Amino acid sequence: MSFPGATRPSEESLWSSRPACREMESKVSEGGLNVTLTIRLLMHGKEVGSIIGKKGETVKKMREESGARINISEGNCPERIVTITGPTDAIFKAFAMIAYKFEEDITNSMSNSTATSKPPVTLRLVVPASQCGSLIGKGGSKIKEIRESTGAQVQVAGDMLPNSTERAVTISGTPDAIIQCVKQICVVMLESPPKGATIPYRPKPASTPVIFAGGQAYTIQGQYAIPHPDLTKLHQLAMQQTPFTPLGQTTPAFPGEKLPLHSSEEAQNLMGQSSGLDASPPASTHELTIPNDLIGCIIGRQGTKINEIRQMSGAQIKIANATEGSSERQITITGTPANISLAQYLINARLTSEVTGMGAL
Question: pTM of the full predicted structure?
Answer without folding.
Answer: 0.53
